[in-house]
Design a protein that fits this description.
2 copies of one chain form a homodimer. Chain A is an alpha/beta fold and about 450 residues long. The first copy, chain A, folds into 2 domains: about 250 residues, Rossmann fold (3-Layer(aba) Sandwich); about 140 residues, Rossmann fold (3-Layer(aba) Sandwich), CATH 3.40.50. Helices cover about 40% and strands about 15% of the residues of chain A. Chain A has 18 helices and 15 strands. In chain A, helix 8 runs antiparallel to helix 9 and helix 10 crosses helix 12. At the A-B interface, helix 2, helix 5, helix 7, helix 15 and helix 17 of A face helix 2, helix 5, helix 7, helix 15 and helix 17 of B.
């Protein structure tokens, strides 16, 4: 028997998260006055224990036992040696898939949802509110809240809510409540509905609604929760890469190339940051965040200060951004349709530690179907982007006759995205590439904001 | 950290299946002439290596390395100690879930699909044909065929094909072809369509179409494949129980009660047969196959000789049966809507080694939602029946103040069955109980067949 999976025992679960803020320099988030924000300014939105994590520069942060207890439902996750994919590609490369699709909600998202629900619970919070686009994040937070007895309220972009009724059912099964956004439950929602009663909604509006519900609860027992972008979210995801290191050690391997798809950036960061630490300390590794050509934040957009949401409720973050009002084309990888990206990822690009790539929708689905037929797991549309990059690298290794080790985050399964596979098989999917005019047009939005310094961490 | 999951390493994968035919006596299958069939009579339908397994009475049968290689994509599967469910129920019982939902198709079905695809491949077969009701089995066989480079053709009951287009997409993603049944591709299908152009189809018709396609391929390179009922299918599933034994040994526990839902019976058999062996040798265990009240084969139907399919293509099998023309009410646990059950399970009931139970649809979904909210995994509607029985037993243990160990097969996840959860939350699900008249009516069908002997194995 060829050994396909490398497992860890529950005792081998990492006990600390890795915090990349200990090792790089960053531009601070700015408030409405253009000055760096203080932790207190975020207190109505997040609990103070998470705000402390957001600004911490401790390299190792202990994972609470109560968080490990819930994570151990599905963690440690398997590392799969993709031998059949290697055979079909005829590549000398060794390909490893870190399989985050085995969590109950089917993706890496609960790694941070569980931690956030725990810290809110400890802080005395009774209810979390969030937005969700395609529904993956809302499902993960509903799952996490069910584990700690918190209420969960999710504002889901109207068009997705209507197209994917099953996502609402998933949240409901875990006890969460899901409303289409814009709704008549908030000032923000009502204002939009009055102007555009037939609007399909947007992530920006949904964020506004979620924040408004959170901050307007006069009992002080409700907070908002975000599933990507922020430092503490990246921190919680590093358990992925820390497990992977132990697994590769067991088979005496180490990656030459690390790949993850990137929307807000959390699954990419989770796998790669513990290896970025090694790279800072001299290891030779190529590290590729992969985005869709339809939303080329890192590959085409400038490094600016911009808001994380359309309604400008969030502080200004120093990041690559297509502009906070940018509406990406309707690709099926809903999780990659974000105008900005995690500030830490933007800084790593500035530091030349990671190299962004982009992939078209059709190349992504070609890759996903090939991986499903060889390795057996149907990937999420987002994951397909990373897998297309893996296949490119494996083919390059073949051309060069190099025994490369390629590591990729298999961030989620596609069992709730089969409609997009159906369209692919029916030849109803198309590619979208963004013209430079469109990018230029979106740039104007942040022209009036302060400009971030181009910091080099080293 | 409380340890929630008990994992095995890939090296601890069982290397042999347990064959219960070594330990019990059975009535033989009969041919059209009323005499026991010979292995050769099955040769046009199944490859000879699988027919040999079907009739073997060797207690331990070696699992080929090439089968272990594919099973190791997701096996060994986790055993979960359901501590949060125990807490919510306030029970002194220790509840263990054997989590078969982690396979790529989401259920236990690929345990036998992979083995069957392998043996067909070794025998020189190029294509497998099967039927599927709700789609779980067809998906598993398409997955297995993709792993060995076989073609796969699936006839899916028309009404399910229309209601669940995603199941077809799953099969297609793994390279399988799925047709609604009745189709115009077979004599059987065309005959039905001529008479009833608007028929919703039935499992009986789909089986007829699949067998017809298999046996009429003049190259001799096509065979039929069945996902439950037969001895070799039960055999392949015993890897579930064999793994579980090792896992329980690691924590020093042993089950007092073993529970699995039962349609054709394969997931129940897979978990319980290795423990039935212990019971034969003196262990005290209660073993419960759980069926829906809407299809009460073991709890209400007689032990008779009957066909496995409506079109009477199969041999006569000695089993409990509601009659091969019985159409069960439209419960959402499609995998449990079968008129008969595995002959080995029927014999174990006759031997008083196992005790059938039945559960209503609403009790099943109540249980599934409670388990989703405590243990985090959304169960398949079939699995919900087993979980309802677990909750009954855990409550009984509380009343009796007994520290029972309850073991259940968590046979599949519900991510492709969310429509039924939606109906549950919208109060659109109802219970179906079968009246004695309805059962009596269906009995008449097999009155003309030979009667099986009531054998006692001991």
């Amino acid at each position: 028997m060829k050994q396909r999976t490398i497992n860890l025992t529950p005792e081998e679960l990492p006990r600390e998260w890795y915090n990349i803020l200990a090792d790089i320099k960053m531009n601070p988030p700015l408030g409405p006055d253009g000055k760096p924000i203080s932790p207190e300014m975020l207190a109505p939105v997040f609990p103070m224990n998470l705000i402390e994590q957001e600004v911490s520069s401790e390299r190792w942060i202990k994972i609470p036992e109560e968080v490990l207890d819930v994570l151990s439902i599905w963690r440690p996750t398997p590392l799969i040696r993709a031998t059949r994919l290697e055979e079909v590609l005829g590549t000398p490369a060794r390909i490893y898939l870190k399989n985050e699709s085995v969590s109950p909600p089917g993706s890496h998202k609960p790694n941070t949802a569980v931690a956030q629900a725990y810290y809110n619970k400890v802080f005395g919070i009774k209810k979390l509110v969030t937005e969700t686009g395609a529904g993956q994040w809302g499902s993960a937070l509903a799952f996490a809240c069910s584990q700690y007895g918190l209420d969960c309220e999710v504002y889901m972009v109207r068009v997705s809510f209507d197209q994917k009724p099953h996502r609402k059912t998933v949240m409901q099964t875990w006890g969460g409540v899901c409303y289409p956004s814009p709704s008549d439950r908030t000032n923000a929602g009502r204002a939009v509905l009055e102007k555009y009663p037939d609007t399909p909604g947007s992530l920006g509006i949904a964020i506004s609604e979620a924040i408004e519900i959170a901050v307007s609860d006069t009992t002080g027992k409700t907070r908002y929760s975000l599933g990507s972008v922020l430092n503490h979210v990246m921190l919680h995801q590093t358990i992925i890469g820390l497990e992977t290191k132990k697994q590769l050690e067991k088979v005496g391997d180490y990656p030459d190339v690390i790949i993850g798809c990137a929307g807000g950036g959390s699954n990419f960061a989770g796998l790669s940051y513990p290896f970025v630490y090694d790279k800072i300390h001299g290891k030779q590794i190529e590290i590729y965040p992969v985005e869709p050509t339809a939303c080329p934040t890192l590959t085409k957009a400038p490094y600016v200060y911009d808001h994380g949401d359309e309604a400008k409720y969030t502080p200004l973050l120093a990041m690559h951004s297509l502009g906070h009002a940018f509406i990406p084309p309707p690709i099926h990888a809903g999780g990659l349709r974000y105008h900005g990206i995690a500030p830490t990822i933007s800084q790593l690009v500035n530091d030349n530690l990671i190299t962004p790539k982009s992939i078209t929708q059709l190349d992504a689905f070609d890759a996903g179907v090939l991986v499903a037929r060889t390795e057996g797991i149907i990937p999420a549309p987002e994951t397909n982007h990373a897998l297309a990059c893996v296949i490119d690298e494996a083919r390059k290794a073949k051309e060069e006759g190099k025994e490369k080790v390629i590591l990729v985050n298999f961030s989620g399964h596609g069992l709730l995205d089969l409609g997009s596979y159906e369209k692919y098989f029916n030849h109803e999917l198309t590619n979208f590439a963004l013209s430079d005019e469109e990018i230029l047009k979106s740039e104007k939005i942040y022209e009036t904001f302060p400009k971030p310094e181009l910091i080099r961490s080293f």
